[in-house]
Specification:
Blueprint (H helix, E strand, L loop, with lengths): L4 H137 L3 H14 L3 H13 L4 E5 L5 H15 L5 E5 L6 E6 L2 E6 H18 L3 H7 L1
Parallel strand pairs: 1-2
Antiparallel strand pairs: 1-3, 3-4
Length: about 260
């Protein structure tokens, strides 16, 4: 078989032209497009990696800020709770002090009221006893209560112990002022004379006496001179009666004791 070299050459030339044309107009644009695409993809990947790093950094910063915010919130809540507890305790203590002060004031007010009531009861009792005694003496003996009180006072002067007489006599001698005799009522002249006579007789000397009416000397007569005092008063008997009643009340069983006995 004979080879047609012209045909072979033409085919070779055609093939080379085809290869050049493919490389020039097909492969090169495709390769360039592939390279450009690869570069674009690589750039996009690099940009995505950068953005991912930035996003991760921002996420870390956000988490760090969240942690700081949580810590600050916890610190603020703890501080607020401590301040609330402190304020609550302060208010409780202030309320307790106020309540204690109020109870103390109420207790003191009750004590003063009780003292005032006791004083008023004592004054009224003394006044009633004084009035009853005066009326009784006048009805039964035809003698005023004032006369009986003067007699009781002069009798007490004469019945003083020797030591008491010596002390009172010394006070009378050394006193620069007249001896003061105070009574809850105006002493008539005959009773003043009786008291003056009892003093002169008791101390064997002329005693200078100044008489004075003093309502606070309830139902009685008292003599004072240079720090010494001799007195007779219904109040003494009432005080004794009050002490007796107080002791009697103290001896009574309390409600708790009564319940225990039952």
């Amino acid at each position: 078989m004979l080879i047609d070299w012209f045909t072979v050459g033409a085919q070779v030339v055609n093939f080379l032209v085809l290869v050049w044309l493919l490389k020039r107009f097909l492969y090169k644009p495709i390769l360039d497009a592939i390279d450009a695409r690869e570069k674009r993809i690589a750039a996009e990947l690099a940009d995505a990696s950068t953005k991912q790093s930035e996003a991760r950094k921002e996420r870390d910063e956000f988490q760090h800020k969240n942690q700081e915010i949580d810590q600050q919130r916890d610190a603020l809540l703890s501080k607020a709770a401590d301040e609330a507890r402190t304020e609550r305790q302060r208010l409780i203590d202030e309320a307790r002090r106020t309540a204690d002060a109020l109870r103390a004031k109420q207790k003191e007010a009750l004590r003063r009221e009780q003292i005032s009531l006791n004083d008023e009861i004592a004054r009224r009792t003394q006044a009633e006893v004084f009035a009853i005694a005066r009326k009784t003496l006048m009805d039964l003996a035809g003698t005023s209560l004032e006369e009986r009180m003067s007699e009781a006072f002069t009798r007490r002067l004469r019945d003083l112990s020797d030591e008491a007489k010596r002390g009172l006599a010394k006070a009378l001698r050394t006193s620069p002022d007249a001896t003061l005799v105070r009574s809850a009522f105006d002493l008539p002249p005959d009773q003043r004379a009786a008291i003056q006579h009892a003093l002169n007789e008791t101390f064997s000397d002329e005693v200078h006496v100044r008489f004075e009416t003093a309502p606070d000397v309830i139902g009685g007569i008292e003599l004072t001179t240079n720090g010494r005092k001799v007195a007779w008063s219904i109040a003494d008997y009432l005080a004794s009666l009050t002490m007796s009643v107080g002791k009697l009340v103290e001896q009574q069983p309390t409600p708790e004791a009564k319940r225990e006995v039952k």
